[in-house]
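Open question from group meeting: does this chain pack into something compact, or does most of it stay loose? Before anyone orders reagents, we agreed to write out a predicted structure and look at it together. Recording both the input and the output here so the notebook holds the full record.
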Amino acid sequence: MERTTALSGDPHIGIFCRVLGEIAIVSPEVPDEFCEALRKALDVDLVRTTIQGSSIVGSLVAGNSRAVIVSGLATPDEVRALEDYREVYRLEGAMNAAGNVILANDRFAAVHPEMEPDVLEEVKSHLSVEVTRLTLGGVKTVGMAGCATNRGILVHARATPKEIGRLESVTDLPIGTGSVNMGSGLIGTALLVNSRGFIAGAETSGFELGRIADVFGFVEGI
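Structure tokens returned:
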């Protein structure tokens, strides 16, 4: 099975797609060949919608099996498209690129260190998880500096022991450091993963793929 792909030549596939368990959210204009690669690698149902009229769905959506958090600028039609699958919470205010500022699974959420307390409480309530403010490798946009499933967490290669310790305080899942696309620590920009499989940006090396497989428990499938 192919473990890497690109979207119209762009290896930053995590910017254009958000995988939440058994669903993958992509814009309607995403090519069929990319959607088929997602289905084969992750065994997902596709939800086709833009967010605030944009195709950069991965940057604007976060969530887990309980809820989807979207940009507060998402339209009513976009919200309705997601409500068939999850409860939807619209992230209002200046820090509304949910996929950039939230890293989540069914056990925890890590958020941008400057997220307002009332917004953090809303995230906690809707996702029904513990929430911690965090950076990863010094990067505040934690949703793009890591990926998390209910099997493991892969974070920026330069994440510090203190940052990893903060994650360990809210989850007992395996946590590993790594990279994508030949050395980028912005894991979320180029990795789509769930409990069934994964697919990474086209420039991701064999070594990087092995690290991804190890952290998320897919070694036998590589």
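Observations to bring back to the group:
The radius of gyration is 16 Å.
The chain has a mean pLDDT of 96.
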